[in-house]
Automatic annotation (TrEMBL):
It comes from the Eukaryota. The keyword Transport applies. Belongs to the ligand-gated ion channel (TC 1.A.9) family. Gene3D superfamilies: Neurotransmitter-gated ion-channel ligand-binding domain. GO terms for cellular component: synaptic membrane. It holds the Pfam family Neur_chan_LBD. This is GBRP protein.
Amino acid sequence: PVSVGMSLDIASIDTISEINMDYTATIFLRQRWTDERLCFDGNKSLSLDGRLVEMLWVPDTFIVDSKKSFLHDITVENRLIRIYPNGTVLYALRITTTVACSMDLTKYPMDKQMCTLQLESCK
């Protein structure tokens, strides 16, 4: 198994819909793992064009309860791949996602809602 570290920053919460019971957020997702096949001699990291991600193994991470999501691609795909000499890969991307959130509005307008953002992997 490959151990994958993750970090996530929420750039913005764009909308909250009580009617659709969901919210839309833009996030920056970073994942880090080591692939010994990518080791190279040197002491500096290599930053690669995001389009090269198709040539690498990447974790199959998904957002639980996502209704729809998209990767930003203006003017190019908002992805970063950095490979370090020891084979460590940093993969970062910007995603906007709409996620289901069951809200209990029986005490509106004195209510409080708790919405989650969960990430999982199939493997």
